[in-house]
């Protein structure tokens, strides 16, 4: 977050921005109530920093940095956060092109698009076997009540007998 705020032009505010992100209500609430997405959440400033850097100075290193930060964030198993981050990056690019004239040196849009595609491609080594395992899992198909808890499978006859035994005993 410090690097992002510095890239946005806040010299002294960089430290304040970093502290606001780390100690802010959103970060505290995520770490208290939805801990499983906090590791994906903390990579959002790095992804936005890479996007901002590519908008101003497109480079291969910046594209790889964007893809790598997305890849690390995807490894946490919370792709919802990355979907929202992709939307945020898309809105930032649209805002940049709507408010400023793009520079002729390099194509920021191509660099950002390649970085956004690079993240899932880097994780494909991990994601494809995970998707294959999920497809072969018991959870991939529909389960009946007896499949979920076979010891509790009850039909009306056995229920009637069990109730009658309780009444007699």
Report the span from N to C terminus: 70 Å
Order of helices and strands: HHHHHHHHHH
Q: Beta-strand level of the residues, as a percent range?
A: under 5%
Mean pLDDT over the residues: 81
> What overall form do the CA principal axes indicate?
elongated
User: How many domains in all?
Assistant: 1
Low-confidence stretches: none
Helical residue percent band: over 70%
- How many helical elements? 10
Task: Provide the gyration radius in Å.
Answer: 25 Å
Structural class given helices, strands, pairing?
Answer: mainly alpha
- Count of individual beta strands: 0
The largest sheet is:
none
Tell me what the structure shows:
The protein is mostly helical. Helices cover 74% and strands 0% of the residues. The chain has one domain. It has helices at residues 2-7, 13-23, 25-33, 38-41, 44-56, 60-74, 79-99, 108-136, 145-148, 156-168. The mean pLDDT is 81.
């Amino acid at each position: 977050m410090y690097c992002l705020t510095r890239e946005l032009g806040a010299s002294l505010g960089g430290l304040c921005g970093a502290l606001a992100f780390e100690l802010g209500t959103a970060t505290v609430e995520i770490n208290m109530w939805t801990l499983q997405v906090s590791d994906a959440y903390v990579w959002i400033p790095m992804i936005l920093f890479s996007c901002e850097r590519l908008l101003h100075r497109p480079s291969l290193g910046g594209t790889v940095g964007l893809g790598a930060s997305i890849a690390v964030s995807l490894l946490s198993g919370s792709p919802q956060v990355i979907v929202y981050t992709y939307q945020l990056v898309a809105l930032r690019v649209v805002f940049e092109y709507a408010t400023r004239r793009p520079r002729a040196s390099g194509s920021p849009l191509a660099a950002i698009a390649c970085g956004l595609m690079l993240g899932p491609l880097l994780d494909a080594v991990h994601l494809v076997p995970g998707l294959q395992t999920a497809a072969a899992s018991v959870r991939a198909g529909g389960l009946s009540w007896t499949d979920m808890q076979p010891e509790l499978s009850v039909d009306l006859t056995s229920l009637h007998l069990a109730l009658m035994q309780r009444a007699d005993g």
